[in-house]
Amino acid sequence: MIYPVLRALGLALGLASGLAAAWPAAGDAAVDGAVDTAADAASHGASDGSSDAASDGPTDGPPRLVKLVSVGQGDVMLQRNFFGRVAARETVDIAFQVPGQVVALPVIEGMDVAAGEVIAQLDLEVFDLDLQSARLRLNQAERTIARLRQLAGTTVSQVTIDDAETELALARVAVKNAEYALDHATLTAPFDALVSTRYISNFTTVSAGTQIARLHDMSELRIQVSVPEVLYQSSSSFDLA
Fold first, then answer.
1. Which of 139, 163, 184 is the last residue of a domain?
2. What tens digit of pLDDT does each residue of 59-113 get?
3. In the chain, at which end, N or C, are there fewer CB atoms within 10 A of the end residue's CB?
4. Is residue 21 part of a domain?
């Protein structure tokens, strides 16, 4: 930057000398003007040089901190809320398998019962009488077949003996039916349960299959939620919560 300034200063001085030789009266003024012009050019060039040097040079002060963040594709978890209801592990409506009159109904709604505890009981007298009658007919059938077998081949035909054997078999079935009815005249809890509903009152005459009470197995609670099918179809893109 200094060399162009000096060159301009030399040209100005040469021009002033030529003017002084041509017009002696104005020589001093021309020389003074050329010197001032060269000085202004030198100062202007120096200021430009310092400005360029200042702009190109390093700035003062501490360096700025730049925060770098890595951008990538992550897993997106979408959460949806659904209404549900709490359900017991198992719910059953128990009923008698034989008809009769209920004479005992000790349970009430909201009561906890243990497995094997009595829920309801029918009048057992009728079932006891039926069992006794069936056993008497069985004994009679056994005596009849024994007597006929002793007389077989004489005055008793084989057809008569066959009929007696059939009666004996029917008597045995009647005894089993009477025993079954007596055993099922008492209704017990199949598991530890909570009685939520009692459908009948005591001393009610019921038929086979009439619901007596509803029991809940509370050993394990489950949440039942209805989820729209459209969400299952797109379940690969998010998890159901």
1. 184
2. 566 777 887 777 666 666 677 788 888 889 999 999 999 999 999 999 999 999 9
3. C
4. yes
Q: Is the distance from CB of 115 to CB of 189 less than 8 angstroms?
A: yes
Please give the angle made by the CA atoms of 94, 99 and 104, to the nearest 5 degrees. Answer: 65
DSSP for residue 65: P
CATH code of residue 217: 2.40.50.100
Instruction: Give the helix/strand (H/E) hosting 176.
Output: helix 158-183
**What distance in Å separates the CA atoms of residue 37 and residue 9, rounded to the nearest whole number?**
8
Give Cβ neighbours of residue 3 (< 8 Å, ≥ 6 apart). none
Whole-number Cα distances in Å, 63 to 19, 59, 60, 185: 58, 9, 9, 95
Same domain? For 180 and 196 the reply is: no
Report d(CA 139, CA 214) in Å as an integer. Answer: 42
User: What tokens does 64 get?
Assistant: 């700025």
Tens-digit pLDDT profile for residues 8-41: 555 555 544 554 454 444 444 444 554 455 455 4
CA distances from 220 to 34, 46, 90 (A): 110, 94, 9
- Pair 44, 19 in one domain: yes
Number of domains making up the chain: 3
Provide the whole-model pTM: 0.59
Cβ-in-10-Å burial (0-12, 13-18, 19+) of 127 comes to buried
Q: Please give the Cα distance from 97 to 205 (Å, whole number).
A: 13
